[in-house]
Specification:
- The protein is an alpha+beta fold and 667 residues long.
- The protein has two domains: 189 residues, Penicillin-binding protein 2a (Domain 2), CATH 3.90.1310; 367 residues, DD-peptidase/beta-lactamase superfamily (Beta-lactamase, 3-Layer(aba) Sandwich), CATH 3.40.710.10.
- It is 41% helix and 16% strand.
- It contains 26 helices and 19 strands.
- The strands form six sheets. Strands 2, 3, 4, 5 and 10 form a five-stranded mixed sheet that branches.
- A hairpin with a 6-residue loop joins strand 18 and strand 19.
- Helix 14 crosses helix 16 and helix 16 crosses helix 20.
- It is elongated.
């Protein structure tokens, strides 16, 4: 039966349902049109993002080469395995798969987990770097189907000369979070990327770093490579050319043997630093990765301070190498070079005796013989006459007490004392602030407050040799420097240069061991032996202990400065042996051999085998004695308490740096 009322109700329901369906369809169609037309590009990019991987390509770090183009710091291939957390499915399963190819110990696993937890998920994590070719090949074959795991071929920093240029070149290391926050460079959080951490690597990091490239690759849903879509190559860093002669640097480092020492060689005409050696040192190839804790502790505890760049950061009393400064200050003050001073072995000031290194004295000494004899009494007299301010002014003119514009962080300025300096340092204590005449005597022979570094002594020698304000440089460029004159009369410089020639070549000089073996080449130089301890009057009465009888840390420093050829100076050199006993006996032969290498390398190389064999023997003896001490300490620890004896170490009287010291300088 046809019911009109029911038919009307059905029609209304159908109409409402149809309208709803039409509205829903229109809404869906409109949304689809919106997504397709207005947001289509956005979703296309997201789809491509799932299909296409964008990878940062870190730049190759610029090489550092010596003056002849020989590499000092370079890059070599580095095969490593990376983990990409954004593509990884299960960390535990992934690590199990990796262990099937290469060994991962607990420390490495903890480090990997920590890196994944702390850095952004889009940044890869290095599982292992420095893979061998068989390991890298195995990773490419057996791990390609593991999501998030990628074998990568990259480059790592390599220093072919190892520790011989470590303090000069420095090393590279991973950036710190603070450096990333300051720079905001994505490269700084890229795994394996390194920046300069010390030396020239740090100072010139911007030039050496380069600019990153990019690579696009099409991958499957499992992360497998389908094809390379394109790359933007990286821009390698600049090649940095130094003034250093790598072969000379290597020779000087080998010639030092096992000494704690510094050698610097400069070109007197251009200021080029040809060698800047500080030994012992560390291997920067190790520092470029994670430094083992045991190695770091050993380097810090070593009494030869291998982490310190002695050439630029080490501070030492210059000793008698400073006497050229006093000589020039005296000449400028009007002292007659022919005036004689009587040396009896000691000089009296008040109630104190200031001893000369020659206990019986030198007799009558004038300026022409004062430097070759290194007569302390002569310089006491002249230093007291002209005053410390005149000496300090000449020292600064010759380059002492200043920092140079070099790519070396942490240069030590040293101290060139005068009355104003002491007043400033001790101004709150009038008694201490007053300059005393005894302090002038100390300063006149390079002792007391005055301290310098080896670089300053090399600059001083280059200026004495050339008569110009020579400034050192380490980075070679096309502009040749034109240095102004020192403003010191040639006649004054001639007296000092002749004195330095006589130091080495006259029969009464203090450095016959520095005489050149090269025909027609004369070396001019000056010895120095700087005290590190105070010699008490009681010890003088009983007899001053020989350096050889003292512990290594209590022995005098040995110094020598030189220029060559004496007639037409071209090269200047400074040598410092920490606790080396005597400048004339031990530092001078090193300078002789290093300078000989510039003229006859074969002759200089001939002395190395015996020196290196002797150094190896001493290292063995030292390690044996250290092992014996460790065994004795362990035996003592295991000894019953009732059997232990309290043995106190000997006490040595160490010099007070704030008090004037009657010096002793055996040449």
């Amino acid at each position: 039966m046809d019911d009109p009322i029911r038919r009307a109700q059905f029609s209304r329901r159908a109409l409402l349902l149809g309208a709803g369906m039409a509205a829903t369809g229109s809404l869906l169609a409109g949304r689809m049109a919106w997504l397709a037309v207005f947001e289509g590009e956005t979703y296309r990019l997201k789809a491509d993002g799932n299909r296409v991987q964008n990878r940062l390509v870190p730049p190759r770090r610029g090489w550092i080469v010596d003056r002849n183009g020989k590499p000092i710091a370079m890059n070599r291939p580095d095969y490593r395995l990376e983990l990409r957390p954004a593509d990884m499915e299960d960390l535990d399963a992934t690590l199990i798969a990796i262990r099937g190819v290469i060994d991962i110990d607990l420390a490495e696993e903890l480090r990997i987990r920590d890196d994944i937890a702390t850095q952004p998920r889009f940044m890869p994590v290095v599982v292992r770097s420095g893979l061998t070719w068989p390991e890298f090949s195995a990773c490419n074959v057996r791990l390609t189907t593991v999501p998030g795991v990628a074998p990568v071929q990259s480059f790592s920093r390599h220093y072919p000369e190892s520790d011989r240029l470590a303090h000069l070149i420095g090393y590279v290391g991973a950036p710190t979070p603070e450096q990333y926050r300051a720079d905001r460079d994505p490269l700084l959080i890229y795994p394996g990327f390194r920046i300069g951490k010390d030396g020239i690597e740090r100072h010139e990091d911007r030039r050496l770093r380069g600019a990153a490239g990019a690579a696009q690759a099409e991958v499957t849903a499992r992360g497998e490579l389908v094809r390379e879509l394109g790359t933007r190559p990286d821009q390698p860093g600049e090649t940095l050319k130094l003034t250093i002669d790598r072969d000379l640097q290597t020779y000087a480092a080998r010639r030092l043997g096992d000494n704690s020492a510094s050698v610097i060689v400069m070109d007197c005409q251009t200021g080029d630093v040809l060698a800047m050696v500080s030994m012992p040192a560390y291997d920067p190839n190790v520092f470029s990765t994670r430094v083992p804790a045991r190695l770091w502790a050993a380097l810090q505890e070593d009494d030869h301070t291998p982490l310190l760049n002695k050439s630029a950061m080490g501070l030492y009393p210059p000793g008698s190498t400073f006497k050229m400064v006093t000589t020039l200050a005296a000449l400028e003050a009007g002292v007659d070079p022919d005036e004689s001073v009587l040396c009896t072995g000691a000089y009296r000031l008040g109630n104190n005796l200031w001893h000369c290194h020659a206990r019986r004295g030198h007799g009558g000494v004038h300026m022409h013989r004062a430097l070759p004899l290194s007569c302390d009494t002569y310089f006491y007299v002249m230093g007291r006459r002209i005053g410390v301010d005149a000496i300090a002014a000449m020292a600064r003119r010759l380059g002492l007490g200043q920092e140079y514009d070099l790519p070396l962080p942490g240069q030590a300025e040293g101290i060139v004392p005068d009355k104003a300096w002491k007043q400033k340092r001790y101004g709150k204590d009038p008694k201490k602030a007053a300059w005393r005449e005894g302090e002038t005597l100390n300063a006149s022979i390079g002792q007391g407050y005055i301290i310098t570094n080896p670089l300053q002594l090399a600059v001083m020698t280059a200026r004495l040799a050339s008569g110009k304000v020579v400034m050192p440089r380490l980075i070679a460029d096309k502009t040749m420097p034109d240095f102004p004159s020192l403003g010191i009369p040639d006649t004054h410089l001639a007296i000092v240069r002749q004195g330095m020639i006589d130091v080495v070549n006259a029969r009464f000089g203090t450095a016959p061991a520095a005489r050149s073996p090269v025909a027609d080449v004369l070396i001019a130089g000056k010895t120095g032996t700087a005290q590190v301890r105070r010699i008490s009057m009681a010890e003088r009465r009983t007899g001053v202990l020989r350096n050889e009888a003292l512990p290594w840390k209590q022995r005098d420093h040995a110094l020598f400065v030189a220029f060559v050829p004496a007639g037409a100076p071209r090269y200047a050199c400074s040598v410092i042996l920490e606790h080396g006993i005597s400048g004339g006996r031990y530092a001078a032969p090193i300078a002789r051999d290093v300078l000989t290498y510039l003229f006859e390398p074969e002759r200089a190389l001939a002395v190395l085998p015996a020196i290196e064999a002797d150094a190896a023997t001493r290292r063995t003896e030292r390690s044996t004695s250290e092992a014996a001490a460790a065994i004795a300490q362990e035996n003592r620890r295991m000894m019953p308490s009732w059997l232990k004896i309290d043995i106190k170490p000997p006490v040595f009287e160490v010099a007070d740096p704030d008090a004037p010291q009657p010096p002793r300088e055996p040449e």
